[in-house]
Design brief:
Elements (H helix, E strand, L loop, with lengths): L11 E5 L2 E8 L2 E10 L4 E10 L2 H16 L2 H14 L14
Antiparallel strand pairs: 1-2, 2-3, 3-4
């Protein structure tokens, strides 16, 4: 792990009206969380989350989540362009724990 990343703090966030997607570095990879805000932003409803070990999976989930939230492919293309422009900090996931 490098010092460039702080675990648990979103490294990237996409927001559009009451919808959001956040990409958060975690020990085992990148956590992607998506959902929407309700009650004028007072309540956050998480519709899904998933951990990816590779940036390619993170990019794909970002696109899928934005399309799921908006129903608009152009919004997903724009979100991906924003991610590419900002980039993600260097992050090397630790080994996965042994299965139970």
């Amino acid at each position: 792990m490098t010092d460039d990343v702080e675990l648990g703090v979103p490294a990237f966030a996409w927001r559009d009206r009451s919808r959001y997607v956040e990409i958060v570095p975690v020990r085992t990879g990148w956590l992607v969380v998506w959902g929407r805000y309700e009650e004028t932003g007072r309540r956050r409803l998480t519709l899904g989350n998933r951990v990816y070990r590779e940036p390619a999976g993170v990019r794909r989930r970002l696109v899928d989540a934005v399309v799921e939230l908006t129903g608009n492919r152009q919004e997903a293309i724009d979100a991906l362009a924003l991610l590419d422009a900002r980039g993600l900090p260097a992050h090397t996931p630790q080994e996965l724990p042994a299965p139970l």
